[in-house]
Design brief:
5 strands; alpha/beta; 59% helix; Butyryl-CoA Dehydrogenase, subunit A, domain 3; elongated; Rossmann fold
Length: 266
C-alpha cells in the first residue's frame, strides 16, 4: 500500500485532532498540510517502526512542536468556556489529553506519538485534568464496595474540585443516593459488596437521567460482555491516579462539548 493510501484512511481523524488542538479548522488544516508536505519530501520516514496511524500522528507532532507556542498566562485564560480553555493548555498537556480522550490511543501509543515515556505522559494527563477541572466541576457519585479504594477515589475527585454526593457499596444504595441528588458523573465498580452489579445499577440510573460514567473495575471482561451504558469509560484496576484524573476530565469535557453542540444545532 502506498503512503498516500495509508495516510488517506487516517486523514479525517488527524484533521479532527488538529482542529481540537489549534482551536480552528483553518489553523488545524494548515498543520496537516505541512505534515503531508514533509511526508512527500521524506517518504522513507513513514511509517518506520510504528503502525501507520501512530506514525502519522508522530509526524504531525514533529511539525506541531516545531512551531507551537505555550498557552497564555492564567490571567489571560480567565473567562474562557471549557472548549476555549482546552486550546489554552500548554502544548504537551493538550496533546496528551486529546490523544487519549478524543483519538482513543492507548497510553503506549500516545507516549510514542509524543516521543516520551508513559510516566511522563501520565504527568501531562494529570496536569491537563487539573487545569480543566475548575471549568467542569460537578457532583460525583462513587459506587465502590472496598472502603480504602472508595476513600482514595473520593480524595482524588475532591482534589480535582468536584463534589462527592455519596459513596454506595451496593446497587440499592447507588439508586437511593442518585435519586436523592442526581450526579453529573458516576464512578462505578462492577462487582459490589452484596453480589449485586454496578453495571446493572448504572443502567437503571441512566433510565432517569443521562451522565457520563467511568467504570473502575478488576473485571473489565464483564463490562465488555454486558449491556454497556453510553457514554461510558473503562479503567482497569489497579489504576493510576493520574489516568483516572485525566479520564474524569475527558468524560466531562466531551460531555459538555456535545451538549453545547446540541444546543447550537437546535
Amino acid at each position: 500500500m502506498s503512503i498516500s493510501q495509508l495516510v488517506a484512511q487516517h486523514l479525517p481523524f488527524l484533521r479532527r485532532y488538529a482542529r481540537a488542538l489549534t482551536g480552528s479548522q483553518k489553523s488545524g488544516d494548515t498543520y496537516v498540510a505541512a505534515v503531508l508536505e514533509a511526508l512527500i519530501e521524506e517518504p522513507q520516514s513513514f511509517p518506520g517502526e510504528y503502525e501507520p496511524r501512530v506514525a502519522l500522528y508522530r509526524a504531525f507532532t514533529k511539525v506541531w512542536n516545531s512551531v507551537a507556542e505555550g498557552g497564555p498566562s492564567s490571567g489571560e485564560a480567565k473567562g474562557l468556556n471549557v472548549e476555549q480553555r482546552l486550546t489554552q493548555l500548554t502544548p504537551l498537556t493538550r496533546q496528551a489529553f486529546l490523544l487519549l480522550g478524543l483519538e482513543g490511543f492507548s497510553e503506549k501509543d500516545a507516549a510514542d506519538i509524543l516521543d516520551i515515556d508513559v510516566p511522563k505522559l501520565r504527568q501531562y494527563l494529570d496536569e491537563a485534568g487539573r487545569e480543566l477541572a475548575a471549568e467542569i466541576a460537578t457532583e460525583v457519585l462513587i459506587i465502590e464496595d472496598v472502603p480504602l479504594i472508595a476513600v482514595d477515589i473520593e480524595a482524588l475527585v475532591e482534589n480535582l474540585g468536584h463534589r462527592v454526593v455519596g459513596i454506595a457499596r451496593t446497587h440499592r444504595e447507588a439508586v437511593q443516593l442518585a435519586r436523592a441528588k442526581p450526579p453529573g458523573l458516576i464512578l462505578a465498580d462492577i462487582q459490589l459488596a452484596d453480589g449485586s452489579s454496578g453495571l446493572d445499577a448504572v443502567n437503571e440510573l441512566l433510565q432517569s437521567f443521562e451522565v457520563p460514567v467511568i467504570f473502575i473495575t478488576a473485571y473489565p471482561e464483564r463490562f465488555l460482555t454486558g449491556e454497556r451504558p453510553e457514554p461510558a469509560f473503562l479503567i482497569p484496576k489497579p489504576f493510576q491516579p493520574a489516568t483516572l484524573s485525566a479520564v474524569i476530565s475527558q468524560a466531562l469535557f466531551f460531555e459538555r462539548s456535545a451538549k453545547r453542540r446540541e444546543r447550537r444545532a437546535s
